[in-house]
Inverse folding.
């Protein structure tokens, strides 16, 4: 007890300064999560409030784990994340290298590059839904006008086309975050090692591969970490573009949770799935954070 | 090819790429000014024939076409919710960020990590318990309810950003100010705060954009015109089988404009804020 | 009028003691330099005087006030920081006037005080620039100007010159000394550079591992170092130290050869392990030194290396297997391997106890 009191006394100022942040997160994140952890062990259904006290232990989890739809959604989500993050990284790297080569108008281009970042995910979803629409979508219209296809391509209906369309929307929205962070890395890059490598006889590709890229890795991992923090925003895109349909063909973990909770009103089971999604997010963030730390240590410059 | 010519070619190439990137957004903006009839025509009309403000008039309830979507209230809700939650999140974040930047205390690293991890929780996963708890406490479908949630989801990031910026302000400046006769409080406001201002501004912009654009939580926590925000309101245009594309486009423009203006006004800060993470972590 | 006195001052971080009970009295208008290697507790001591670090034990008073519980702003001190700590968002004028503005002085008075400080330090042309637009030396001046504007009881300097290049450092050293003459205030100055300490101080306080090792005027600590640490820390090049044993009234060097016991030494017991110390200034080749008045010892030694400095050369040689340095006035070219006859001025030599390092003088 006295140790606690001493801890409080010695650290009174920082604790006081931190308390509002801790308090608000406790109230809005931690407490609800504890509650949802409890409900994930109950048979809670929204339409039957008394079912909140019906503790079923691991039944929700067992049911979720035995559910083919869940595994399909989980697999799709992991595939989606892997695909999307890597493509964003590659495209962002390309964009950044391109802008970095500009000798004039660099600021303007950088500003234009940030354009997609201002779009709300829900807007991005709407915009691509509009573009990929099978009757009035600009993509189909263009393809038909150019005579590349005689009939409308059902972008948002076909299983893989819909998945690809959603991925494109997501990539469009988030690539610029990678581009900007990598560009910052390129700006911060010291000239000497590059020049030394040139003197040592490296080709452009070798310079990029052995000097520039290792230096950029921490920036790439920072972008990865930031992105995995809010990658679940893809829910918005999917929700507006396909709603997880048709017939669950584009269901990601997040849309499945929403449907289970609000449409089927099976809160307990939805919460069990939500915990899986939280663990997934934490895993991705943690993974890239570790990579970031390792890259920094390796470079020894930060 | 001369160096100059090569530079120009690279510029043109980059510009074309940027144009392609901007196309989807520009297409929606263009559609906002075209009548529904033109959008729906088959075969497609490529060159817009009549551009007008009709869609905007319609969604705000002027003109012939009656659209029963209270965009005005949504806009106001969005504005109130975003501004309030941003201000509160920045104040709280500044306080926390300062503590992390300036003081040593046991468990600091762990505290920071947990704060950041709280950002990992997907909005939809958080919405489930919040939906129930807010229903019990009567916070459901109120602006206050959304403000509280947005404040909390913005705090980790504002703490992170402001911490970095305060850490950049040398500690001895505050000490010098205290020797010059300031109380610690004065030293903060007269010396440290002005120097971290750009970081705080970028934290504020990020928070505002997050709140302004958020959908997953708002879609579950709001029900009526009392609290529905613009992103949630966008779904009003989707009926069971039809979508009012023109109206939706107009509303999209309304959502994007404040974000656009704000971002361009302060893009320097925005880039500083984003790149900061890359440089210092 | 402000004396500063430290009574058994202790600083502890957690369980770790970094300052071990320091006693020090600084007179009014005295220029005291705390010097020592990094980590010796000198900066911590200064920061405790400033009120930037809490005092774990003991008492510090400024004038007749005990200041332990006073905030920095209540102590009427000013401080020049190592990195200057100028407010980057204010002009030079605003930087200079900041403390008076905080004190609520009328604008006219602030203006006058800032102008006066600018005049003393030659800052008038830069008054409307921000620190970012100034050179290192100018920033240094602004930092000093900010300190004098307040007419504090005590000036504190925390390694103020360590970020300047060698030439500017010498120049600013002179200016600090002049400034002290001009404003005449008590100064506590921290540095790791013994040249700065020697040139600036009325009194030098040499610290090591949180203890005061020796206090005295520059000449006292130079001529009468209390132990081998001070002997090798003060003076450049550092004092030559050669190990030996006392046998029959002479020092038998560990690596062979012997040296007489310097005069004025309380003779230690036979067989005692000692360290023989002498400075390069008192170890010169015959014909290239000063006329000697006292007893000398002559040593024939081969030169390892000669470093010409112009007016003199540093001569590296080996005495009983230990590398030692000598000095050569009116130098001539020397080839490595050349054997020179060195004269050692015995009354300027030192003898230390090899176990404790303490001076036997």
């Amino acid at each position: 007890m006295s140790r606690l009191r001493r801890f409080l006394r010695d650290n009174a100022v920082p604790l006081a300064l931190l308390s509002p942040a801790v308090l608000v997160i406790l109230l809005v994140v931690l407490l609800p999560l504890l509650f949802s952890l409890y409900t994930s062990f109950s048979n809670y259904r929204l339409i039957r409030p008394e079912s909140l006290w019906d503790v079923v232990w691991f039944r929700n989890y067992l049911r979720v784990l035995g559910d083919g739809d869940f595994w399909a959604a989980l697999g799709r989500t992991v595939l989606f994340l892997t695909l999307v993050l890597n493509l964003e990284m590659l495209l962002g790297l390309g964009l950044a290298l391109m802008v970095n080569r500009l000798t004039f108008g660099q600021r303007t281009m950088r500003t234009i590059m940030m354009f997609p970042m201002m779009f709300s995910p829900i807007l991005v979803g709407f915009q691509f839904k509009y573009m990929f629409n099978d009757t009035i979508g600009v993509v189909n219209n263009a393809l038909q006008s150019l005579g590349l296809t005689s009939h409308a391509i059902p972008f948002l209906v076909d299983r893989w086309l819909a998945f690809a369309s959603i991925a494109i929307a997501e990539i469009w929205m988030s690539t610029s975050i990678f581009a900007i962070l990598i560009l910052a890395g390129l700006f911060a890059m010291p000239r000497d090692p590059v020049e030394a490598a040139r003197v040592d006889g490296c080709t452009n590709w070798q310079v990029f591969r052995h000097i520039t890229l290792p230096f950029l890795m921490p920036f790439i991992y920072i972008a990865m970490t930031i992105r995995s923090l809010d990658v679940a925003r893809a829910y918005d895109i999917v929700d507006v573009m396909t709603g997880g349909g048709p017939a669950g063909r584009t269901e990601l973990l997040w849309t499945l949770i929403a449907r289970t909770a609000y449409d089927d009103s099976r809160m307990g089971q939805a919460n069990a799935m939500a915990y899986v999604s939280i663990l997934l997010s934490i895993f991705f963030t943690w993974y890239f954070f570790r990579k970031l730390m390792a890259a920094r240590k390796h470079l020894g410059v930060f | 090819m001369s160096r100059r010519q090569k530079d120009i070619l690279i510029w043109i190439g980059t510009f074309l790429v940027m144009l392609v990137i901007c196309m989807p957004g520009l297409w929606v903006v263009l559609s906002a000014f075209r009548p529904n009839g033109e959008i729906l025509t088959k075969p497609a009309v490529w060159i817009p024939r009549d551009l007008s403000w009709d869609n905007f008039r319609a969604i705000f309830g002027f003109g012939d076409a009656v659209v029963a979507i209270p965009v005005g209230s949504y806009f106001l809700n969005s504005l109130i919710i975003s501004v309030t939650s941003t201000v509160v999140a920045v104040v709280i974040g500044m306080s926390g960020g300062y503590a992390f930047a300036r003081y040593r205390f046991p468990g600091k690293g762990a505290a920071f990590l947990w704060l950041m991890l709280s950002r990992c929780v997907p909005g939809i996963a958080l919405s489930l318990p919040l939906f129930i708890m807010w229903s019990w406490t009567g916070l459901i479908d109120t602006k206050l309810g959304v403000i509280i949630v947005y404040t909390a989801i913005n705090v980790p990031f504002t703490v992170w950003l402001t911490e970095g910026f305060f850490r950049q302000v040398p500690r001895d400046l505050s000490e010098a100010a205290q020797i010059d006769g300031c109380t610690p409080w004065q030293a903060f406001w007269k010396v440290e705060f002005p120097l971290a201002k750009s970081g705080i501004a970028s934290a504020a912009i990020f928070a505002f954009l997050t709140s302004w654009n958020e959908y997953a939580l708002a879609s579950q926590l709001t029900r009526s015109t009392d609290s529905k925000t613009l992103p949630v309101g966008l779904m009003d245009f989707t009926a069971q089988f039809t979508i009012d594309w023109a109206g939706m486009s107009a509303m999209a423009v309304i959502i994007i404009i404040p974000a656009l203006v704000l971002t361009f006004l302060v893009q320097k800060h925005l880039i500083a804020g984003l790149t900061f993470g890359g440089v210092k972590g | 009028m402000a004396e500063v006195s430290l009574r058994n001052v202790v600083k502890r971080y957690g369980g770790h003691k970094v300052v071990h009970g320091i006693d020090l009295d600084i007179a009014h208008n005295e220029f005291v330099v705390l010097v020592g290697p990094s980590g010796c507790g000198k900066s911590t001591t200064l920061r405790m005087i400033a009120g930037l670090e809490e005092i774990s034990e003991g008492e510090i008073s400024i004038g007749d006030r005990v200041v332990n519980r006073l905030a920095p702003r209540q102590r009427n001190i000013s401080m020049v920081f190592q990195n200057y700590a100028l407010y980057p968002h204010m002009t030079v004028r605003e930087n200079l006037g900041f403390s008076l503005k905080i004190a609520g002085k009328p604008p006219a008075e602030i203006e006058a005080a800032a102008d006066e400080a600018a005049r003393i330090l030659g800052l008038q042309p830069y008054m409307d620039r921000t620190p970012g637009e100034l050179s290192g030396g100018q920033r240094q001046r602004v930092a000093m100007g900010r300190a004098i504007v307040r007419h504090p009881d005590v000036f504190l300097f925390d390694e103020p010159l360590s970020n300047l290049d060698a030439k500017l450092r010498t120049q600013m050293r002179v200016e600090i000394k002049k400034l002290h003459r001009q404003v005449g205030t008590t100064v506590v100055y921290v540095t790791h550079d013994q040249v700065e300490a020697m040139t600036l101080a009325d009194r030098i306080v040499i610290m090591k591992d949180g203890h005061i090792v020796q206090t005295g005027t520059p000449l006292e600590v130079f001529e009468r170092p209390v132990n081998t640490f001070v002997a090798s820390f003060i003076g450049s090049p550092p004092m030559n130290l050669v190990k030996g044993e006392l046998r029959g009234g002479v020092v038998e060097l560990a690596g062979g050869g012997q040296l007489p016991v310097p005069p004025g030494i309380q003779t230690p017991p036979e067989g005692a392990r000692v360290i023989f110390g002498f400075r390069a200034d008192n170890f010169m080749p015959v014909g290239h030194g000063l006329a000697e008045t006292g007893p000398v010892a002559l040593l024939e030694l081969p030169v390892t290396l000669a470093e010409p400095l112009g007016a003199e050369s540093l001569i590296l040689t080996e005495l009983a297997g230990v590398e030692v340095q000598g000095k050569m006035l009116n130098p001539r070219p020397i080839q490595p391997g050349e054997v020179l006859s060195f004269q050692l001025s015995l009354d300027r030599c030192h003898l230390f106890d090899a176990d404790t390092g303490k001076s036997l003088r």
Chain A has one domain: 63-299. The domain at 63-299 of chain A is CATH 1.10.3720.10 (MetI-like fold).
